[in-house]
Amino acid sequence: MSLGVSCNRLFMEVELQSTVQAQALLRIDQVAERVQYGRSSIWAMVKAGTFPAPTKLSRRCTRWTNVQVDEWIQQRIHSGSSK
Hints:
Number of helices: 4
Structural class: alpha+beta
CATH topology: Multidrug-efflux Transporter Regulator, Chain: A, Domain 2
Largest sheet: 3 strands, antiparallel
Order of helices and strands: HEHHEEH
């Protein structure tokens, strides 16, 4: 019985870690590194509506979630592979 409880607990911990990782906030330099574009190119794409807009946390603080960035990367991969 305790084995089942520990397996369930482990599963819940892994699920929680996945959720926490999915909600990580990225700075512009982290986004630039991840997508291999420069900062000004990223902001130009945001303005053009071709890259997800960040969340404004305060007057001088904007962040992207890694989910937003990863989804954008996956869309680019899938659109490139269909051509």
